[in-house]
Write a structure and sequence with these properties.
The protein has 223 residues and is of the alpha/beta class. The structure holds guanosine-5'-triphosphate and magnesium ion.
């Protein structure tokens, strides 16, 4: 995908003054709740993407995430306010992933991250995609994000080129959108969440059905 394919964010106004944890569902009247989950190998940059989007901050000394956490962001789009539940997952390798299945099932959008400068994280991406596909509810959106795009060309031997990642999606996962982003330089971070919101809106009827399925599944699965 070239850059012109990204959705324009002209109408995307982030509400000023809305912070992180101390916002509760009733604080702002909103039209819909959208659950967005980030998964991927340890250290690929999941939390940094969230921090950049939610609070416009980037910290190179960020600590590994030890427990899953829901970050709340209200966004205004058109005349409506939407609540985004952005779920950061704890630092864990794919093989030990468990217990978060419920979060995957409840997600409208699953953002599957790898680090473009760290080939092993791309080698694992198929496992994460399959997890999202197998556990996620049909109809949820999957976006693959190549993180740390500002580091392109700094370590060519260990790098995943944009064309390799794009080809991977085109050939194996046609319905997955690929975006390269940098939390550090704030490149295409907002696009990930804007795209999720737009997808949600354009599939709202399907998502109402999806919601019923999610609730039905949640009530009959033990964790
Ligand atoms: N250059 C650069 N470094 C980044 C970027 N995003 C994250 N990093 C660095 O990569 C490291 C890991 O970032 P995190 O955001 O903690 O990654 P994570 O996937 O949440 O990691 P875990 O919680 O440990 O699984 C940190 O040192 C970040 O500063 C980016 O866009 N550019
Ligand atoms: Mg983290």
């Amino acid at each position: 995908m070239n850059d012109t394919n990204h959705i324009k964010s002209d109408n995307f106004n982030v509400l000023p003054g809305v912070g992180l944890q101390d916002i509760y569902e009733d604080d702002l009247p909103h039209n819909n709740v959208i659950n967005i989950l980030l998964i991927g190998d340890p250290g690929v940059g999941k939390s940094s993407l969230i921090s950049r989007f939610v609070s416009d901050e980037y910290n190179s000394d960020i600590t590994p995430t030890t427990a899953s956490k829901t970050n709340i962001k209200y966004v205004k789009y058109g005349d409506m306010v939407y609540k985004l539940n952005i779920i950061d997952t704890r630092r864990i390798n794919y093989d030990r992933y468990g217990g978060e299945y419920k979060q995957i099932q409840k997600s409208h959008c699953i953002v599957i991250c790898f680090d473009i400068t760290h080939k092993p994280s791309f080698d694992d991406i198929r496992k994460w995609i399959n997890l999202a596909s197998n556990v996620g509810t049909t109809g949820s959106l999957r976006i693959m994000v190549g993180c740390k795009s500002d580091m392109r060309s700094t370590n060519p031997e260990n790098e995943i080129s944009k064309s390799t990642a794009q080809k991977f999606c085109d050939e194996a996962y046609k319905d997955i959108l690929y975006i390269e982003a940098s939390a550090k330089e704030d490149i295409f971070v907002k696009d990930i969440f804007l795209y999720s919101l737009k997808y949600f809106l354009s599939n709202k009827n399907e998502f109402d059905v999806l919601q019923e399925k999610i609730e039905a599944r949640s009530s009959c699965i033990l964790y």
